[in-house]
Amino acid sequence: MKVSIPTPLRSYTGNEKWVEADGATLAELLADLDRQFPGMRFRVVDEQARLRTHMKIFVNQENVRDLTTPVTGADEVTIMQALSGG
Question: Rounded to whole angstroms, how far apart are CA atoms 13 and 84?
């Protein structure tokens, strides 16, 4: 399935905005992304296997936080990272 990568994480993907990944759940999808692009999962998921608070994942434009959410090859997944500053 197509996965949209936020600008701060594109250094992992060779600056590709869209990549392909497989998995039956978001957790499996993130594991596949990490297999292809080592280190990416740690930027999205914390040590307790939870989505980091500054990260958002959308499946077909629906915001989801549960990594057990099922996904299919027809889904479009968007990873977003909140930006902050002063």
Answer: 23
In order, the DSSP letters of 52-71 are: -TTEEEEETTEEE--TT-B-
Maximum CA pair distance of the chain? Answer: 40
Could you give the domains of the chain?
2-81 (3.10.20.30)
Full DSSP string of 6-67: -GGGTTTTTT-SEEE---SBHHHHHHHHHHHSTTHHHHHB-TTS-B-TTEEEEETTEEE--T
Distance CA 31, CA 83 (A): 24
For residues 27 and 50, is the Cβ–Cβ distance under 8 A?
no
Q: pLDDT for 20-73, tens place per residue?
A: 999 999 999 999 999 999 999 999 999 999 999 999 999 999 999 999 999 999
